[in-house]
C-alpha cells in the first residue's frame, strides 16, 4: 500500500466494467479543491443532505489525504464534474475478541437516483474488496443506511447498537461509589486526553473501529456547526492518582412542558475502567433539572442495567445492527483473535466471490491461541456457513446455536454449534461506538 492512501488508483476491473457502460471511474485527487467539492456535493446529494458549506468543506478537507476517494462520472451530463456515484475507503484497526486486524473501512456509498439499479454500486463495492485484498487487508467493514444492501457482497452484521432513554428520577442509582473524582472541563482540555482514552477503550472493545480525521473531532461537536458545538459539555473522571480514565460529552435540551425536567443526551461516553464507567453515568443520572437521559450507539449488555434499582426505567428505543464486516482472508482473521480455551473446529466457508471460500481448521490451546490452516478434509466438529456469517461468528456476538436454529448455518453433527460457541463467543458483546 502506498504511504499515501489517496494515491491508490481506482480498481482496474471495475473501471473497465464501468467504461463498457460509458462511465468513467477514477480516484479523486486529494489536492484538487474543485474535484473534492464536487465529490462532497455528490455524496451529500446521495444522502439527501443539503449542499456542503465552505466551513463543512474546510472541516473535511484534510481527510481526503487519509482515504482513497472514488468518483464515477457520466461525461455526457450537463454538469459532468459532479460524480454520479461515490465511495471512499481507508485502512483502520478493528478490534476482535483478544486481538485486532487492520481492515478496509468503506464509506460514502452513493449512486445518483438517475443512474441507480444499473450495477454501479456492485462495481464499486467489488472494486473496494479487491483493493483491500491487494493492500493485504484481511477484512472490510462499513456502517450502513439500509440493512438489505450488503449481505450480497459477503458482509454480515457484527455489532448491535442500542438507543435508550432513562427516567433518571425513578431509576434509582445503586452502583458502588468510585474512588476518583469527576470534574467539568473545557473542550480543549477534553481533547488533550480524548485520543488516548478512545484508543485504549477501542483496543479493549471487540467490534470497535479506530477512527481517523474529522470524524474524531465531530464527537466533540462539529467545528462547522457552531450552534451544536456551543451546547456541548465535557466531564472527565480521574482515578485516585489523578489519571484520566473516562470522558463524557453531552448536551441538554429543554422539555417545553417542564423546565425542571430537561433532557440530557449523551453524545459520547468513553471509559477505560469500571470505576470511570460508574462515576460518569452516576454524574449524568444525578444532575439537577434533568428528568431524562438519552444515549445511543451503546452496547446490548451495558452494565448500566445492573447499576439501577429499577431497570425498567431504562427504555430501549431502538436496537439494530451497526457494524458490518466482510472477511477476505479467513486464516488471517481467524488467527488474529483468541478463543475460549483448548479445542478444535472446522469451518466450511462458502463465498460466491471467492475471497474467503474454503475449509479452515482451527486448533486452539488452553490459552485460547489458535493455529489456523486451510484443510482438505477434516473430522470432528464442523460448521458449514455462507461467508456473510463468518464475520458475525468471528466477532463472537452471535451464537452459532442461534444461527443453526435459524437454518442459516449447518452443523456436521448435533452439538457442533455448541462446540463452536464454547470457542467463539465473546465475553462481552461487541459494540461499535461511532459512525464512519
Ligand atoms: C444503495 C445504492 C448505493 C445502490 O446503488 P445501485 O447502483 O442502484 O445498486 P446496484 O444497481 O449495483 O445494485 C446492486 C444490488 O443491490 C440491490 N440494491 C440496490 N439498492 C438497494 C437498496 N436500497 N435496498 C436493497 N437492495 C438494494 C440491487 O437490487 C442489486 O441486487 P442484485 O445484485 O442482487 O441484483 C443507491 O441506491 C444509493 O445511493 N442510495 C442512497 C444512498 C445510500 O443509501 N447509500 C448506502 C449507504 S450505506
UniProtKB/TrEMBL annotation:
Annotated InterPro entries: Acetyltransf_17, Acetyltransferase_Eis, Acyl_CoA_acyltransferase, Eis_dom, GNAT_dom, NAcTrfase_Eis, SCP2_sterol-bd_dom_sf
Keyword Cytoplasm found: no
Keywords: Acyltransferase, Transferase
Single Gene Ontology BP annotation: aminoglycoside antibiotic catabolic process
Chain residues that bind acetyl-CoA: 109-111, 117-122, 145-146
Active-site residues per Swiss-Prot or TrEMBL entry: 150, 436
GO molecular function ontology, one term from the record: aminoglycoside N-acetyltransferase activity
UniProt domain N-acetyltransferase: residue ranges: 23-179
Family note: Belongs to the acetyltransferase Eis family.
Assembly notes: Homohexamer; trimer of dimers.
PANTHER family, per database record: N-ACETYLTRANSFERASE EIS
Protein name according to UniProt: GNAT family N-acetyltransferase
